[in-house]
Structures are given as C-alpha cells and as structure tokens.
Design a protein that fits this description.
4 helices, about 0% strand
Length: about 140
C-alpha cells in the first residue's frame, strides 16, 4: 500500500513537471511566424493535457476515504472545464488584452486550490476520527 501511494505521489510530481514543460513549449507561440510556433502550440497543449491527466489521477488515487475521493473527483470535474476554457480563450483570442485574463484566472486558481486543500484536509481528519471511534 505504501509503495502504491509513493508511486502516485511521484506520478503527481511528474504530472506537474509535464504541465510546466507544456507551458514552456506553449511559450514558443510567442515566436515569429513559422513552423516552430505551431509545434510549440501543439506540444504545449499535449504535454499540459498529459500532465493534467497524470496529476488528476494521482490526486484521486491518493485519497484515503470515500468522502475524500468523492470530493476530489468533484473538484476535478469542475477544474478541467475551467482550465480548458481558459486555454481555449488564450489560444483563440486575437485581442492584445487577452493576457489580462491571467489576473482573474490566477486568483480563481489560487482560491480554488486553497479551498480544495483545506476541505480535503478537513474531510481526511473527520474520516480518521471516525475510524478511531470504531476501533
């Protein structure tokens, strides 16, 4: 059991690294016109998606109880469309003000992450207290 948890924790870190590589490759979109620009956009989105899949699955598999798992699955179902919508708007928008979208997106991402971590920790503590009472 411990080895499986360690594997998924490492996989989560690997997912975050892939996400960072994807973001770095997506920055190639800022280069002048050419095939590098398209290559960066393609591989950036692909690596980012792969990182999100690995990170999401490791977060779900790293849960300890049924309530915690249900919460993480629900949070994942909310986070994916939000992130995909943001990426779609950033890739398709031609406005020079599109970069200002990073401000509300960063606030929402930080707030959601804080809320998710605190709620998951609270659920984990409640479930561990419930198990101690049964023993």
């Amino acid at each position: 059991m411990r080895d499986r948890m360690r594997f998924w924790a490492v996989a989560g870190v690997g997912g975050n690294i892939l996400l960072a590589v994807g973001a770095a490759l997506a920055l190639l979109v800022l280069l002048p016109q050419g095939w590098w620009r398209n290559l960066g956009a393609f591989f950036g989105v692909a690596a980012g998606t792969l990182g999100a899949v690995v990170g999401s699955s490791s977060s779900i598999l790293n849960t300890r109880g049924h309530r915690e798992r249900a919460f993480v699955v629900k949070l994942t179902w909310v986070a994916w469309p939000v992130v995909m919508s943001f990426v779609a708007v950033m890739l398709t928008s031609t406005s020079s003000y599109r970069w200002l979208l990073w401000l509300p997106y960063g606030v929402v991402l930080f707030t959601a992450g804080t809320y998710g971590n605190r709620t998951q920790q609270r659920i984990r503590e409640e479930e561990s207290q419930g198990r101690e009472g049964l023993q």
